[in-house]
Amino acid sequence: MDLMTKVHSEHVDITVLGTIKTIANAQAIKEAIRKTHEQHPDTIINLVIKDSFIITSSVIGCVIKSIEMDKIALHVNVGSEELYEMLEDMNLIDVMNVRKAYRCAKA
Question: Which residues face 47 on adjacent strands?
């Protein structure tokens, strides 16, 4: 898994490439969210999960805590339909500000 942070004029994108599967991956994402918020406290943060079709419970907990308790303007964009459906099944779409970032395959 790799992380890339890109600052734009009105928001910051934290892009996750690869599969989120280890504790170290989860820690890296948590740290990226924390550092980005410290450096840009009034800016919207987009956590863009491009490739991963799974997400660890600790990342879910971190995102919910960041939004609900820390009041961070955080949105999650998922690139995998499978991950979106899993989060939808868990009723986390609204809680985690999840949006679809994948494109439908053309017939």
Answer: 14, 76
Task: Please check whether residue 54 is in contact with residue 81, taking contact to mean a CB–CB distance below 8 angstroms.
Answer: no
CA distance 81 to 29: 21
CA within 13 Å, CB half, 36: 26
Mind listing the pLDDT tens digit for each residue in 41-63? 999 999 999 999 999 999 999 99
Distance CA 7, CA 56 (A): 25
Pure H helices in 40-107: 57-68, 81-89
Q: In terms of Cα–Cα distance, which of 68, 81, 11, 15 is closest to 45?
A: 11
- Alpha-carbon span 46 to 78, nearest angstrom: 10
